[in-house]
Every structure is written in structure tokens, then in C-alpha cells.
Amino acid sequence: MRRLLKANSEMIKYHEDQKHFGLKLGDGNEVQWTEKLGLNDADMIFVLKAEPLVKAGLDLNKLEGSGWVFKEASSDDMGMGANPDQIVKIYDIKK
Prior knowledge:
Blueprint: H1 2-7, E1 12-15, E2 20-26, E3 29-34, E4 44-49, H2 50-55, E5 68-71, E6 86-91
Antiparallel strand pairs: 1-2, 2-3, 3-4, 4-6, 5-6
């Protein structure tokens, strides 16, 4: 993690109110994790940019029941910056 921060400090974001980190993997893809398990409903979140998946044939209407959800683009995601349309998987590890 230290090497990532040295190489590009913009890759990692911290959301003070939610107490979670985000590792920006580029092109709308990221991994988020909570500072401490059980602090939020989401201990870990995987985020994938929706556009290439939809172009490859993903039917957003068939996500129900898969654990993945569609999240529309936003200009400011809880202070973490702008995001494109995304497919999101949330894990509550502490449960």
C-alpha cells in the first residue's frame, strides 16, 4: 500500500464520514473497504464500470438476486468524486 501511495497518492481516497477507504483502479473501477469491520453495512465494496460490461452483453435487468446492483452515474459520490454508471457488489464481512 505504501508503494501505491508513493507512486500515485490520488489512487487512494478516504471518506471521513463513512470511515472507509477507496482504491481507484482507474476507468471507473475501484475497491472500497471500511476502516474497521462492522462500522458500516458495507465492510468491502467492489465497483466495476458498467459500460464495457453492458457492451459485452450484460443485461442489467438480470442483476437481481446476483448480489450485484446497478448504480447510476453521479457527479459526487459522498465526497469521493464523480463516478460513471457502475455495477456494485457489497460485502458485510462482520455479519
